[in-house]
Design brief:
Helix 5 packs across helix 7. This protein has seven helices and no strands. It has one domain. Helix content is about 85%, strand content about 0%.
């Protein structure tokens, strides 16, 4: 099976399609995991016009995709890329929990759910910034 996948991945067009497909699937799965740990329903809040949730969710999307980009560049196979992207995602998730933990003055999820744009913007910048650090560290 591995040899067949490697053979298909040697064609540039098929490799792009494979990485794109796996990247979209990873984005959906990883974003769903973030949805489980937040107190608000992201897509309901975005539909209502909650800009804070949109910024925080957009930052998470960028962070996940950026980590996957680094993992594609650093690895030889799609399996290795997906494995390192998953490790990177776990680190991004841990960072989200640490962000919540190290701000005891208020609850991050509550403030984002209430459309506190300053907190939403900070969450977005944190996800984007850390994705570069995490991405640079993936092997």
């Amino acid at each position: 099976m591995q040899e067949m996948v490697d053979s298909l991945m040697s064609h540039p067009f098929l490799a792009v399609l494979a990485y794109f497909s796996v990247g979209i699937l990873a984005l959906i799965v990883f974003l769903s995991c973030f949805e489980w740990v937040t107190k608000y329903e992201s897509w309901d809040e975005i539909r209502k016009g909650n800009l804070s949730v949109a910024m925080a969710t957009g930052g998470k999307m960028f962070g996940i995709c950026n980590i996957f980009r680094f993992s594609i560049q650093a690895n030889d196979t799609i399996y290795e890329s997906l494995t390192w992207a998953a490790v990177g995602f776990v680190l991004l998730l841990v960072a989200y929990f640490l962000f919540e933990f190290f701000t005891p003055v208020f609850r991050i999820d509550d403030e984002i759910g209430k459309d506190n744009r300053a907190v939403g913007f900070l969450a977005m910048i944190l996800s984007v910034s850390l994705s570069y650090i995490i991405g640079a560290a993936v092997i």
